[in-house]
Amino acid sequence: MVKIHREVNGSIMGYTPLLKLRTPMKVMQLVSGLIIATTLLGLGYGVASQWSLLSSHETDAYAQITEPERWVEPPSADPVCQRWEADWPPIQPVAELQEMSGVVSSRLYKNILYHVVDSGNEPLILVTDLKGNLLHQIHYAASSFDPEALSQGPCPWGGPCLFVADTGDNFHIRSKKRIHVIDESTLFTNSLHSAEMEFQFPKQDRLDVEALAVHPQTGDMFLFSKEPKRSLVFRLPAKAWRKNDGEQVAESVGFFLYDMITDASWSADGKRLLLINWQGIFERTGQADNEHSEREGWLPYERKIRLPRLAQQEAVAFLPDQRSIIYTSEKKFFRSSGWGMVTARCIHGQG
Fold this sequence. Notes:
Elements: E1 2-4, H1 24-51, E2 57-58, E3 81-86, E4 100-105, E5 113-117, E6 124-128, E7 134-139, E8 149-154, E9 160-166, E10 177-183, E11 191-192, E12 194-200, E13 209-214, E14 221-225, E15 231-236, E16 248-249, E17 251-256, E18 263-266, E19 272-276, E20 281-285, E21 293-294, E22 301-305, E23 313-318, E24 324-329, E25 340-349
Parallel strand pairs: 12-16
Antiparallel strand pairs: 1-12, 2-11, 3-25, 4-5, 5-6, 6-7, 8-9, 9-10, 10-12, 13-14, 14-15, 15-17, 18-19, 19-20, 20-22, 21-22, 23-24, 24-25
């Protein structure tokens, strides 16, 4: 079910009347009036929720900060890169990011990264610069179970959005998963525009899913299971946000023969897909070319991006120029090196 986040204060239209009740009849009249008003408000909310996602979530959970500088023009896609070079050693960001599970490089704001951290932490989107300096924290939900992935794509109501996949399930105990969508243009205001969707996998499969990639043109949401030897691929169509008829079921679209996928990211043109696991980074496409070899599964052409490996690779994303990528790792116990954020630049490619 799609749910709209709202927060209502205790007064009506800014006015809280002082009531002096002198008789039981007045009490009964007041109670009856409140019941009628509540019923009418409930009906109005139901109609608004069914036909529109354009409400706001008023919150004072964070202080407003200055909005970052926007790109003058949206970043565009570039041709395939043939060889990459990593900026090594990794940047080790602030302590709040020691459990990084998802990363997105903003296509709306310059030099801005968004992160989510997984189970055991508050439901926060953490905003940093490219050096991992913490700039802002945003509560995107009242609670979470195990948020494992972050993606960007078109909002259900238009404009750029962030998508948080609360889909982690290491012990395969969850029958229901959740995706949150947050309007990026409201992140630095006191009125966060967001919605959430509950869904399940076919046959109510209880899968651990730590990768989400929202297609930049269609808005379809692709999810990738974190399983040994084979990653199952599922799709939730963008139109699922417009439904309010109960829980959604993701449809199966294929598989990848990779071990334990932890993140995925589309290029800006939606033609190339990055995948990361603890063994490396891979790029998949649906079109044959000189750089990708044919493999099994959905998006059948693959190449491995050869870069230094981090200790426990968890997230990957194209940077806005599409000629660079960023990948991240959680900090492993008793290990102070080999984790953090790495930027890799294209040093040889077409175009």
